[in-house]
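Q: Sequence in, structure out?
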Amino acid sequence: MAGLAGIRGSAEKEIDVAPLLNCIVHRGPDSRRMYHSSSLSAGVVASHLSDVRGDGFAMKGDIAVLLDGEICNDRNGNVSDAEIILRTFEKHGRNFPAYLNGAFACAVAAGDRLYLARDPVGIRPLYWGRTAAGDLCFASEMKALSRTAVDIYELHPSTVLSSNDGVSMYLPHYPDVSIPERFADAVGQLRELIFSAVQRRLEDGAAGGCFLSGGLDSSIIAAVMNQIDPSLPVFTVGIEGAPDIENAVLMAKHLGVQHHVYVYDAREVKEILPEAVRILESFDEDCIVGAIANLIASSFAAKSTNCLLSGEGGDELFGGYHLLKDLATDGERLQMMKKLIDISYNTAIQRLDRAMMGNSITYRVPFLDPEVIAYALQIPVQWKIHPVNGDLVEKYILREAFKDLLPTEIYQRRKLRFSMGTGTENLMDEVTGSLIDEQEFDKESQQTKAGYFLNSPQEHLYYRIFKYYFPHISFEKLVGRWDPNK
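A: Exactly. Output:
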């Protein structure tokens, strides 16, 4: 929805933060609001979604709020998301983010103090650092700080940065939901919670459809969306003959929904590769390949809307990764699922955020609704990864909750990485073949200065592109690894 940037200094002069905002204008091309005080110059660029959402800015007295995100708290009167944050800050002070329900990264200026905060999952990004003069600076994406910050850090989920007191964590006030004892009752309650989560993300009328890969997660969100508003379309991308296109067509016909499909090829992937690395702000090979398909999808969808639903988060919360099946015990699976959730903010979620916002598409993720998260964390591992006819089936409880809304082929479809489903991964040897010297990869050190091991010639290529755009080592240190085993 928006992009934030600002510089807090000690001198009583207005600092020009327009260059920082210009680097992230894709996050919000419809409006720009600026704020200046004796110690802070900041701004927010925002997309227009609805009057309820606002433009990411609110001010009252000596308190100002700049927001990237969407707040789902109860509204008393006609107030925007940023105004809800302002009222919450007035009531709770620096602990204000603990009382917010939604996806957010925000800056709150109160007198001579500045607070930066990020939601508990890390759905919206926020970075901060110091200028050569020692001033605190911040922005929604690393690229906005590449020429401003000497060192850069990512504000982690569930944390607040105070300009006076530094970084601290806050304890989110998760919704009071509990899981029933019986599996059948738990299935029914999960279904109700996901329906409610989708409804909340449609009620302002901003969403223009849903991404549909034909996998279980996106098909469930599309099916629920269709139950609530049958007029909304779905969008699918992939190469010719890709599994995602075949399954998405099946699902769209099952729903009777308008279906937009875009087919791309190796030439288009090769052209977009350097931009994908720059926009994603990563060189992790698993993130890059998936981000290419996401970028193409968001560019395609942007011709029709600036806001779409996504099925992101289902794999992390409901045990969708096949590597979990290789672990010996439920205890080990639980630990790995927790790790995958904990790192998702700069792997799966970062991929979705940069690729969508890179083409000014606001994404909404019902699976990452606080009620759904609170419920999913209580579901026993055996209800997520369940033995059926001698095989372990991933996301079993999720499949059962929506079995009646899905074709049998989709209900039974096994997890495929997004890059595999769209066919992008199969193209990468062809795309990068002329750009990679295999012998050069063997000769050069496979370990970067920040300690990352480059796992393949392709990842070495992504790393070289990354260093061109982000040469300082502090940027490299922020890159996350999607696969915990790498």
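The longest strand covers residues 63-71.
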